[in-house]
Amino acid sequence: MFTSSDNNKALFLGIDGGGSKCKAIVMNEKNEVLGTGIAGPGNPLHGFEQATTSIVASAKLALTDAGLTNVSLNELVAGVGLAGVNLPVQFEKMQAWQHPFKQMFLAHDLLIACLGAHHNNNGAVIISGTGSCGFSCIDEQEVLIGGHGFPQGDKGSGAWFGLQATKQVLLSLDGIVAPSSMNDILLKQLDCTNTTSIVEAIAGKKATFYAQLANLVFDAAEQGDLVALDIVTEGAEYINNLARTLLIKQPARISMLGGLTPRLKSWLNEDIQAQLSEPLSPPEVGSVLYARSQLAKQKTKQKTKQEQSA
Amino acid sequence: MFTSSDNNKALFLGIDGGGSKCKAIVMNEKNEVLGTGIAGPGNPLHGFEQATTSIVASAKLALTDAGLTNVSLNELVAGVGLAGVNLPVQFEKMQAWQHPFKQMFLAHDLLIACLGAHHNNNGAVIISGTGSCGFSCIDEQEVLIGGHGFPQGDKGSGAWFGLQATKQVLLSLDGIVAPSSMNDILLKQLDCTNTTSIVEAIAGKKATFYAQLANLVFDAAEQGDLVALDIVTEGAEYINNLARTLLIKQPARISMLGGLTPRLKSWLNEDIQAQLSEPLSPPEVGSVLYARSQLAKQKTKQKTKQEQSA
């Protein structure tokens, strides 16, 4: 059994903190998963206190899950991947955190997703969940495409598909465009009887609400509904273009991630589908890999310094 | 001069209460405007207290403007047109108001806009300002098209044009679509230098923010920018369809209202433009006409009752 007294073997913590939850993983030096934990929101944009509390809570749960109740947080080398820290002000705030770990290496969520997917510092990811974006990291050169937020960006995401469907249903109920099989399905799903009640039901709703409507668009498109087919074609074409733009830089691998992947992937162009590789590991494993690579760099630097001063 | 002792001549108050301001007008029996006043928001959706305070304040300002400082509010027959009271719950709340007027006749903002534009209970209006919608009232049969709110509806409105431009600029800066002359203009207008700073500047922004960007789309389209031309063509085509749908019911007149009218009208199909009539009066005059018609109906009913009981 792995214990805190086993000094030759380091323990690593991997964190994937997003807007709805924070996932933690404890791994050993052989990259074996020893335990996992999940806590509340981990995106510091939604509050520094909430994020740091969630990180610590999920880490403790992961240690308990691993049976490592005798190990304390200050024995863990932590890779912490968080949504929101692509913004410099959030990065600095989190970096200044008086964290409880032995060491902390901070990265944004896209980088750890990419490292997790490819186990390698040369790859690209297309993400379509509630939002959408493309990201590549090749020899530490990062490229971000999209991810502009809802409703101004995030084309081809769950929220975008749901919003497009809602727009078309409203236009159709107004008699401006032809009817779609989605009209009745949306009315039923929102427990509404007419246009006015839909308008009341959706007023002020956010991306997560619309993302829950994405499946009905794909269902209708697969049944041959022309309005739904137009929406799915337009969304898929955006993701094709996102992939093509990422592929210009020739990443070693490219993967598609996010909750909409199972529905959307088969609608992409065949040449794009053919180039997609299955992700090797989830983002929280990417966080551990990031911590390990940063640790190795630190050691190389220290060694070079010692040799120079010798 | 018109005074409160002149009992044969009634005084009318017309109110047009919207989300940003409340306009009041005082008119005599000859439909002559005696004075006007403007106060704060009058849409009860943003608060009952605020709306009633604004109505009273604007009415007092209109009396002062008319030099009728000796006339009190309880001598005025008020037509009160308000945004938001198309929703039954808001209508009932306002209808239950212990108002200070001699009588109050309540109507929603689209009806008074239509009555003001046509001086007649048979007409239609297309509205494009921050939002958009179509409305007709023919022999008391009302039809509402659009007006579903932002971002799910309000196509062809100022907010819609601004959002479409922002989307295209972001896609273009990402290299997904071709560059547009709007890219530099939007960056300058938002005081931004790159995609990241635009994304930060627009995060969570509402319809009024995007409506302020509408002019740059029309400017660019008039200079021949292809991306802007596509947006303007799509928005105008929606307004064409809105007009065509309203014209099916054969209203006696149709007008276009709202802040975007001067920019948008010339982009509509010529057959639609040819059918548009200039609005005769603003909505607050429509409120007075509504009050007068309701008053006349009341008197006819009372007369019939008296004759029946005689």
In short:
Chain A is of the alpha/beta class and 310 residues long. Chain A is built from twelve helices and nine strands. In chain A, strand 6 (122-128) and strand 7 (132-138) form a beta hairpin.
What does this structure look like?
2 copies of one chain form a homodimer. By secondary structure, the first copy, chain A, is of the alpha/beta class. Chain A has 2 domains: 11-119 and 281-309, Nucleotidyltransferase, domain 5 (2-Layer Sandwich); 158-250 and 266-275, 2-Layer Sandwich (Nucleotidyltransferase, domain 5), CATH 3.30.420.40. Chain A has helices at 48-65, 88-95, 109-118, 158-173, 182-189, 195-202, 207-211, 214-222, 226-247, 261-264, 270-275, 283-309, and strands at 11-17, 22-27, 33-39, 76-82, 103-108, 122-128, 132-138, 141-146, 254-257. In chain A, the strands form 2 sheets. Chain A has a 5-stranded mixed β-sheet. In chain A, a hairpin with a 5-residue loop joins strand 2 and strand 3. Chain A is elongated. Residues 1-8 of chain A have low confidence and may be disordered. The interface between A and B is medium-sized, with 28 and 28 residues.
